[in-house]
Amino acid sequence: MKITTEAMEAQGFVKDADGEFRVPEDGGLKMNVPADLIPKCPDGSNVAMNLRADDSFVEDEGWHKASAAYSDYLRANEEGHVLYLELGVGANTPVIIKYPFWKMTLDNEEAVYACVNYGEAFCPGDIDDRSICIDGDIGHVLKQVKFIG
């Protein structure tokens, strides 16, 4: 899509030899897009993220199918040693990930809750002894993680 490519370039991303966008060597990104490069809906209105912020949230058949699969996965893996890893979940829809992860950690003594979130890394006191809360930028934190294996 031409608009997406132009928007990426306008932010300072650089295309590599494989045609993939990368952060420039100097790390400098503008983090804004010129208004004329922001996609529009077919009717000409502005696009918006699908958030439960108002009555425009789309909860169609595909959404319900994905929600059911997610619920099935959680139920099938709720016992034993479980890490509930939350990356960047804010306060907009905590009932989807944050609150259930807290509850499942509380209910399973072998579970650990971990979150990485800039400015919103916290947990209830009931699970504090089995929680890892990292207040930081996800990208920076993940670059620091050393995997043993």
Structure described in brief:
It contains 4 helices and 5 strands, in the order αββαβαββα. It is an alpha/beta fold and about 150 residues long. The mean pLDDT is about 85.
List keywords for this structure.
4 helices, 149 residues, 5 strands, alpha/beta, two-stranded antiparallel ribbon
Q: What are the SSEs and their pairings?
A:
Layout: H1 2-11, E1 14-15, E2 21-22, H2 61-76, E3 83-87, H3 98-107, E4 112-116, E5 131-134, H4 138-144
How would you explain this protein's 3D organization?
With about 150 residues, the protein is of the alpha/beta class. About 30% of the residues lie in helices and about 10% in strands. It is built from 4 helices and 5 strands. It has a 3-stranded parallel β-sheet, covered by helices on one side. A hairpin with a 5-residue loop joins strand 1 and strand 2. The chain is globular and about 50 Å long. The model has no long low-confidence stretch (mean pLDDT about 85).
Would you identify the regions where 5 or more consecutive residues have pLDDT less than 50? none
- Biggest β-sheet: count, sense, barrel? 3 strands, parallel
Oligomeric nature of the chains: single chain
Mean pLDDT: 87
Contiguous helical run count: 4
Classify the beta-strand content into a percent band: 5-15%
Strand order of the largest sheet: 3-4-5
- The span between the termini is 39 Å
Fraction of residues in helix = 25-40%
What value does the Rg take, in angstroms?
A: 20 Å
Overall structural class, as computed from helix and strand content, comes to alpha/beta
The counted number of beta strands is 5
